[in-house]
# Entry
Amino acid sequence: MDGIGQGPKVVFSVFGLDITETVVIGWAIIVAVLLVCLFLTRSLKRIPEKKSQVVAEIFVEFVNNTVETTMGKQWKHFAPYIGTLLVYAVIGALVSLLGLRSMTADFNVTLTWALMTFVLITFYKIKTNGVGGYLKSFGQPIPIMLPLNLLSEVATPLSMAFRMFGNVAGGAVITGLLYGGLSFVSQALHISFCVGPFTLDMAQLFTPAVLSVYFDLFSGCIQAYIFSMLTMVYVSSAAETE
# Structure
């Protein structure tokens, strides 16, 4: 939980460009997902014979059904993007269970994902209504609504980014404060023990673990799912004729 308030730590620099732990963890996730995909999809059969293929088909079917239900069958081609976003967001949040800094606790990450969604929204609005129709929509239903419509357009990616970032980072801060408070209690009650370079605070046992499971596991997965759902809803709505 350390470093949440100060942002991600710089791991190393390349040509003056700082590479943070968020970037390194992101690369590690990409490699890990690639290896898992290669394992699950090797020696595929028309009729599954291996549990790995069954697991892969269950996930693919889940993503396809979610996209078709939320966006419609004509959007089935959108499933790979949603599946990638969902997997990356879930794993990016769950890495905190391994003692690493959650990727989604970095606002740069959630903002980047939100801007990707915003680009897709804008693309489909222009594709459906043309450039003229897209620009005209900012003055509807009456021209005086132009400032509010522009503000609403900008608020879409910001609200998506802050929703995920706020939940994950906020949970990490709360859990970190609890760990710090219980450490102080342990020292005050003289139930804190040093074992070599490590310190064991008895008051920290079990209690923070419950919050960690909620904030890291449950909340992280839920926020990743909500982010993916919002992406599907916003993009499919943008393609509707105004």
